[in-house]
Design brief:
By secondary structure, the chain is mainly alpha-helical. The protein has 2 domains: 1-51; 71-128. Helix content is 97%, strand content 0%. It has helices spanning 2-50, 53-127. It is elongated. This is Type-4 ice-structuring protein LS-12. Residues 1-20 form the signal peptide. It comes from Channa argus (Northern snakehead). Keywords: Signal.
Length: 128
């Protein structure tokens, strides 16, 4: 019986020591995660402060401009070519339309002059 009591006391002492060890391990683990969080926060802050976003944006825009300028020049040259072709095709059409419309415009002008002359004569007749 004494032996059982001694074994029970030893087991309780070992269990208590084991729990104390686990608590210390948990505290160290918690401290490790806290240090890891602080380190990541600090590194992210340093990264953001070191890399100026404005500089990155300007660099990106400059690079894009450098890549797009030759393409824009090609498109502009193609548009000039298309505009010249369209102008060459439309010029005869406009001359043809103008030739067809000009007699109508001349006729309209004569009619308007005749109306103005009549109105002038009527106004003179009323004024006398």
């Amino acid at each position: 019986m004494k032996f059982s009591l001694i074994v029970a006391v030893v087991l309780l002492a070992l269990a208590q020591g084991s729990f104390a060890q686990e608590a210390a391990d948990l505290e160290r683990l918690g401290q490790y995660f806290m240090d890891l969080k602080n380190k990541m926060t600090q590194e992210l802050t340093d990264l953001i402060s070191k890399h100026d976003l404005k500089t990155h944006a300007q660099t990106f825009l400059d690079d894009s401009k450098t890549h797009l300028e030759p393409i824009a020049t090609q498109i502009q040259d193609q548009l000039k070519s298309v505009a010249t072709n369209v102008e060459d095709q439309i010029r005869p059409l406009t001359a043809n339309v103008q030739a067809q419309i000009q007699p109508m415009v001349d006729n309209f002008q004569r009619q308007m002059e005749a109306i103005m002359q009549k109105l002038t004569e009527q106004a003179k007749a009323i004024g006398n």
